[in-house]
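Notes on consecutive records. When two proteins share a document, each keeps its own sequence and its own token line. Never mix them. Below: protein one.
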Amino acid sequence: MPFSSAIASPKLLLQLFISTIYCIFESAFSKLRYWTTGACKGTKSFVSAAGHKLNENNEETATIPTSVNYHFTRKCNYKCGFCFHTAKTSFVLPLEEAKRGLKLLKESGMEKINFSGGEPFLHERGEFLGKLVQYCKQDLQLPSVSIVSNGSMIKEKWFQKYGVYLDILAVSCDSFDEATNQLIGRTQGRKSHLDNLYKICNWCQEYKVAFKINSVINTFNTDEDMTEHINQLNPVRWKVFQCLVIDGENAGESALREAERFVISDQQFQEFLDRHSSVSCLVPESNEKMRNSYLILDEYMRFLDCREGRKDPSKSILDVGVEQAICFSGFDEKMFLKRGGKYVWSKADMKLEW
């Protein structure tokens, strides 16, 4: 060995030793930092420096994206004052990229996909949505494919073309009084939101799609009794949400909405639930249950973490994969199960009378 190399070797060994110690401390710090009270829920676990979920025995586990809500567009033709996923961008992934992400989710264990917005029927007049619905049911063979819509853009010809691939269609309706819907912003021009609701309910029956209703309870409808109308429409589920404030979406300086005037107390929400306790299909979701118990993908296919009262995005699953991205979703799997997030969601298993 040359003399110069012999002199240099101790220095190289020292640098290697320091580098190794640094990596050990960096790994330990990363594990401490991402210890879950938050990120990857299920068992008591933490996220390693590599982004993998580990349990107490230092064994890798993974959060399974059983049910995913994909908000592929933020654009909407309504202006609901409490909306917490507003039109901050107009971006929509190309169809093939969206399909690639959906396939990644299926390979990671997804059983149910829910398409939402914005208004999902607005982009390409529902054709983009229809192609995604068909792909998920026909190609990916998902047990459940569902949509949440305001109902204003849905045409019967969409059901004729794509209804066979859809398990559940949820239409948002916050009041059975047209004037109240006007105050909330769930309207467009002189079109009747309620006429659309009943029309779509009939189409769902005709084309064998399970019909669902979503309602956000707020200051304008908290005293309303919707029992008669809900019983008449007879949805498979009536999802009743407490108005939720998300910084940067419907509250704060950068927000496109000001939802504070729509917010109700926990007591008011409970009084609404008590008034409708006879409705068998009612599924209540308070802010506590709702905030962290949904896996939400935005238009870039990034999981959104709502634990801090805002929507902090992960990296896109298209760039880093599902397993790594989901560790930064803030998903509370225990609350997901507690609120009844897993239910009979395939229309083939619902035993409905069409």
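Protein two starts on the next line and is unrelated to protein one.
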Amino acid sequence: MHPDSATGPLVAALDIGGTKIAGALVDSEGRLVARALRPTPAGPDGDRVMGAVDEVLAELRAAQYWPAVVAVGIGSAGPVDAAQGTVSPVNVPGWREFPLVPRVSAAAGGLPVILTGDGVAMTAAEHWQGAARGYDNALCMVVSTGVGGGLVLGGALLPGPTGNAGHIGHISVDLDGDPCPCGSRGCVERIASGPNIARRAVEQGWRPAAGTEPTAAAVAASARAGDPVALASFDRAAQALAAGIAATATLVEIHVAVIGGGVSAAGPLLFDPLREHLSHYATLSFAAGVDVVPAKLGTDAGLVGAAAAAAQALQLFPTTA
């Protein structure tokens, strides 16, 4: 993508996950004016992963608009530690307390670098250009292989000291529930993520169509056909999400919950029972009536949000409506 012009100063954005490292130059209107993409190298060699990041940055530095870049924003799978500039993504085994911020700053010619978790980045994107636009108090969530999230309070992104604030996936909503890999029990993620929707359905006797993998998408297909076990697995996921949203609304008074990620593609199978359960969990006057809406930005949310988070932190350009 090479438009004829870019508006205002630019931010170089990185969206780092277990399968891909995406980069873009983002202008003050949220447009991606250049892109770069590399697969995330597998295995324990952290320098190989950093090599892919370096390649993405080198491609962006070769773009015609690079001279207008004033900062780098990173949205990374977590845990991240923005205070220390390090990342330890669960799905990138080569990075444990990896000093990503100084390495990226060096590769970007000494530019300032702002690091956030990927859920916070998605939240920044949806508040700036997506479904949370115009709301001063919002929770945005990614429901996919895991469950992440972020908060907007008082009109501003709230990343927290380490860049992980709003991580709703690890609120415990079932005190005696299944152990979660994080070390707790009954976490929202352990119930509502795509793999756990499929796991629960299989445990209850559901099987995918012949030749189909047992995924949340396959469970959704069965649920649309009326399979009671598949429907029940989505209902349980919706209940967990509703409990987490209600807890958040009670704690900080949000007015909208935006849900993206692959599981949100189930549409009414997820959103209808979620709204119904939420009406029973969020009952106090100040917590009731939260709008629950699907995210708008799709796969570009990580890049747009990494840029928005950096722009807000460094006061580069307005990122609110």
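For the record: The two ends are 25 Å apart (CA to CA).
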